[in-house]
Design goal:
A hairpin with a 2-residue loop joins strand 4 and strand 5. The protein is built from three helices and nine strands. The protein has about 150 residues and is of the alpha+beta class. It has a six-stranded mixed sheet with strand order 1-9-8-3-4-5. It has a three-stranded antiparallel sheet with strand order 2-7-6, with no helix packed on it. The protein is about 25% helix and about 40% strand. About 10% of the residues have low confidence. It is globular and about 50 Å long.
């Protein structure tokens, strides 16, 4: 006999796979260029505040966070990432990433933080973007050549 817990876990797995498949975008970019990782929070029913708080992560690392004029840029992303405040106020929470590096490759996820009370926030998943970086091999070859000279 199937328990309630087993049904609940199976339902959560199916929903998570469905949501991931629905909101995943693949982008390929070359080393040194600028890329925009798309995200739109206009249709989020959770978005009720005038100044949304957006967070972009890769793995467990926070890449970028903005709430109004306050922002945080993660280690290695300083002066390279932004979600312009004027865009965010219009519901466009796309992440601009400049001077793309090989190590920027990975799966980026965006979240909307919805404040419930002064101490409690809810993290709402918005978008997943798989970033592939082309030109890694050329950069590595250049480094090897420079080391041998």
């Amino acid at each position: 006999m199937i328990s309630f817990l087993q049904v609940l876990v199976l339902s959560l797995i199916i929903c998570a796979d469905f949501l991931t498949a629905q909101s995943r975008t693949n982008i390929s970019v070359t080393v040194g260029s600028t890329v925009v990782l798309p995200c739109d929070c206009r249709n989020s029913t959770e978005s009720s505040s005038q100044s949304p708080q957006i967070v972009w992560c890769i793995s467990a690392e926070t890449v970028f966070e903005r709430m109004g004029g306050d922002l945080y840029q993660g280690a290695g992303y300083e002066d390279r990432v932004d979600v312009p405040e004027d865009h965010l106020l219009k519901g466009d929470c796309s992440l601009e990433l400049k001077y793309v590096r090989p190590e920027d490759e990975g799966v980026y996820e965006s979240f909307l933080l919805v404040r419930r009370t002064a101490l409690i926030s809810k993290k709402v998943f918005l978008q997943s973007v798989v970033l592939s970086v082309k030109g890694k091999e050329i950069e590595l070859q250049s480094i090897r050549c420079a080391e041998t000279e």
